[in-house]
Amino acid sequence: MQSPADAWTADLDLLVGAARLAGAKALDFFRKAPDVWWKNEGRSPVSAADFAANDILKKELLSARPNYGWLSEETDDDAGRLDCETVFVIDPIDGTRAFIAGKDIWCVSAAVVHHGRPVAGVLFAPSLEELYTASAQGPALKNGTPIAATDADAARPTRLAAPEDMAHGIDRRMIGGVHRIAHVPSLAYRLAMVADGRIDATLVKRNSHDWDLAAADLILTRAGGALVGLDGGPLSYNRPTVSHETLCAAGSARLSGLVEAARHLSGH
To answer: What are the pLDDT digits (tens) for 119-137?
Structure first.
């Protein structure tokens, strides 16, 4: 009989294969002026590449796991997912604005969520040739090599990726101060940068969504960090509402200090 850990490993392999196919399809459109439409009352772009990658992911994943639910940024939401113990949570291109602008930092984000928490996750950045993976019982890997979030280090400032209005004031509350990192256009990729130690921490404005977060959340967790709300608690996915409040992400040794410093940001 297959153990749950074996099941999530098999799901991870499935996600990797599907994400690679979707990423290859997206590259067919990259820097070739794909058609672009605007959604959310004109605030968010979506390209022909997003839809093409989404079609591949949906076909590959649901044909292999027809009993799983489906939640994707580029598919109309189906409340039937709430009746499923296990759900695919997908962003076919996280960082669509960067993709449209011809910038390299965008990725396919694909996760399996079981009982509200991610158990397999993949971020594939085809333009950078980077693949991040994790399952519930395994290590976080980047191109097959283990990664780890940074430990606390009071001897230098915390390298923090955050919008300027959020970063302002954090500096005085963090031991050693803060060095603000330039904008990273993909939220999922920014969380991966915390997981692989290129940055120490990040703050996430309210109204991020399950599909932005689920895969990166697991990768960061398995790399020795966490993504939490301002209450310090883990996120729950596949709820009726798929958006989240202000969030903090860092290695476990830095996290409590970051959360404490960020609590005044609850309106962001």
So the answer is: 999 999 999 999 999 999 8
Tokens of 3: 């153990």
Residue pLDDT, tens place only, 12-63: 999 999 999 999 999 999 999 899 998 776 678 899 999 999 999 999 999 9
Per-residue HEC secondary structure of the chain comes to CCCHHHHHHHHHHHHHHHHHHHHHHHHHHCCCCCCEEEECCCCEEEEHHHHHHHHHHHHHHHHHCCCCEEEECCCCCCHHHHHCCEEEEEEEEECHHHHHCCCCCCEEEEEEEECCEEEEEEEEECCCCEEEEEECCCCCEECCEECCCCCCCCCCCEEEECCHHHHCCCHHHCCCCEEEECCCCCHHHHHHHHHCCCCCEEEECCCEEHHHHHHHHHHHHHCCEEEEECCCCECCCCCCCCEECCEEEEEHHHHHHHHHHHHHHCCC
Q: 135 forms bridges with which residues in the sheet?
A: 120
- Residue 25, Cα to own-chain centre: how many angstroms? 20
Q: What are phi and psi of 5, to 5 degrees?
A: -60, -40
* 36 Rama sector, left if φ>0, alpha if ψ -120 to 50, beta otherwise: beta
pLDDT band, very low/low/confident/very high, at 266 (cuts 50, 70, 90): low
Prediction pTM value:
0.95
**What would the two tokens of residue 221 be?**
């967790």
Asked if 119 and 135 count as a contact pair (C-beta separation under 8 A), the reply is yes
Which of 222, 238, 249, 231 is CA-nearest to residue 72?
Answer: 238
Closest to 211 measured CA to CA, from 91, 62, 59: 91
